[in-house]
Amino acid sequence: MSDMAATAEAIRALVVTLGDGKEYASRYGCEAVGKLGGKAATVEVPEALATTLIDVNEDVRMNACEALGKMGGRAATPEVIKAPVTVL
Questions:
Q1: Architecture of the domain made up of 3-87
Q2: Alpha-carbon distances, residue 38 vs 5, 26, 68 (angstroms)
Q3: Maximum pairwise Cα distance, the chain
Q4: pTM higher than 0.85, yes or no?
């Protein structure tokens, strides 16, 4: 399996993990996405992270913010931009 295919497979698994609803799964899923950086800036990942930005757990929200920051400008989707406003 090529590195690109392995990365795509890992990203698909992380999107599922981010939507799991369990605190630890979401927290560590966000950390893993952050480690992938810009490689994780697919359409699905920022959308999944947008939902974690409004999680009830502060650590999940913090890890989501850090992951988005490491992904760079490609993560600035409308969903990501709207999520913090929703919380306010």
A1: Alpha Horseshoe (1.25)
A2: 16, 19, 9
A3: 44
A4: no
pLDDT for res 27:
94
Q: Could you tell me the residue ranges of all domains in the chain? A: 3-87
Instruction: Extract the tokens encoding 81.
Output: 């931009």
- Tell me which H or E stretch contains 72: none
pLDDT of 11-26, one tens digit each? 899 999 998 889 999 9
Q: CA 88, CA 83: separation in Å to the nearest integer?
A: 9
* Cβ(53)–Cβ(65) below 8 Å: yes
Is the Cα dihedral 10, 38, 23, 20 positive or negative? negative
Residue pair 38/72 in contact by the 8 Å Cβ criterion: yes
